[in-house]
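User: Fold this; tokens only.

Assistant: Input:
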Amino acid sequence: MTSAPVQAALLQTFGFSLSALLAAVVNYAYYVLLAFVVAWVLISWFPTYPSSSFLQALYDVVGRVVDPIMRPIKSVLPPLNLGGMALDLSPIVAIFALSIARRLLLLIIAGFVAPVTG
């Protein structure tokens, strides 16, 4: 069995950097989740369930991805009542939290993983 520095050296000889790969995964995950949150906001403007099977599938997928993120935020943060309408602030909090998580993960990768793996 090869040791970790040898494996890191082998990855680098083939043009891969483990820290760059992890940073790319974090960035891609952030942007995918951000797109789902924005899609959820846009879908929420149309409260009726869509009649098209494609739109129903899209509605269900977006809901299944975003609900685990939004449900804890909505349980803590009630909608802001503005006269006859309510403003849901949970997408703003979710986007802010995703941004902070992304920055923290990238700092951890740059500060701890990159010096070890190169």
